Amino acid sequence: GEPVLEIRDLRVDYGFGADPTHVLRGVDLTLHRGEVLGLAGESGCGKSTLAYAATRLLPPPGLITGGEVWLTDREGRRADVLGLTDAELRAARWRDVAIVFQGAMSSLNPVFRIGRQLADGIRAHRPDLSRADLEARSAELLEMVGISADRLRAYPHQLSGGMRQRVMIAMALALEPQVLLMDEPTTALDVVMQRQILEQITELRDRLGFSVVLITHDVSLLVEVADRIAIMYAGEIVEEAAAHDVYRRPRHPYAHGLLGSFPPLHGPRRELAGIPGAPPDLQRLGPGCPFAPRCPHAMDVCGRVRPELGAPRTGEAGRAVACHLHDDGPSGPGGPLPPEL
Length: 341
Ligand code: SF4
Ligand code: MG
What we know:
Blueprint: E1 3-14, E2 21-32, E3 36-40, H1 47-54, E4 62-72, E5 78-80, H2 86-95, E6 97-100, H3 114-125, H4 131-144, H5 161-172, E7 179-183, H6 191-208, E8 211-216, H7 219-225, E9 228-233, E10 236-242, H8 243-248, H9 253-260, H10 300-304, E11 320-321
Parallel strand pairs: 3-8, 3-9, 6-7, 7-8
Antiparallel strand pairs: 1-2, 1-4, 4-5, 9-10, 10-11
Helix pairs in contact: 3-4
């Protein structure tokens, strides 16, 4: 499909003054129509910041310092989200791009019934709808996410955590957005419920044709539902490819560590073993590869030159890696790759 969301060289700093922290350090990411793009990485790598920045919902002291976020609406018009006026932005939000935040289910108002909250959400964007239309649409949305319409009369506390999260997803889909951003949408739920919800999202995607960015620290979920996977480290994308390629053969040493300690696809789940070494201190990154202090393959060049995201020298189509081992340019090492990469 054609691109619906194109993030180019997006940069975000936290904190003002002389010494801000560079939290996004030039992110490039493309979401195509109808695709589920999984975005994975350890907590603190900038995944959530990316979602907030791309929708201009970044709270202070976060500051977008550069880049472009091109969004294609349903009529095929492209606009840079970072250049929209506030009014244009309000119109685009939910209609073109909707978000399900981490812990969204706790943002339901405990004193109002589910039906009223859904109807209020729809009415904010569709003041033309009659009360009966709002009710019908609310019922339809609820059933779309697998909840019986008679639950419109329920209060949030009468629903399970999984159901509340589905209600938030129904709200996000209310205006049939082109792009759905989901930040750890199922993290608070048990594994069975997580899988059910993600399966439902892919079914809805097949039916309604929207595109999804699914952000998670749990790579095992992505392997099951994502078409493509992008791995983030220290505020940048270090590898991006078709999900099965990343899973079968991660080529960036960090991606390899993240996936190598990873349970078999259909075997029992276990905690990730993790990657030796401390997560990066974004205040103290040197000029080179941010993964170098933890990388078993670090070379001299890695401490000096930051690797750029690009096609690996193995020449695989549709894969991009930011690692000198995979460079075939002047900074590349030449010679054979480590066998596991
Ligand atoms: Fe390791 Fe060097 Fe590749 Fe960074 S560029 S991941 S330090 S080999
Ligand atoms: Mg997060």
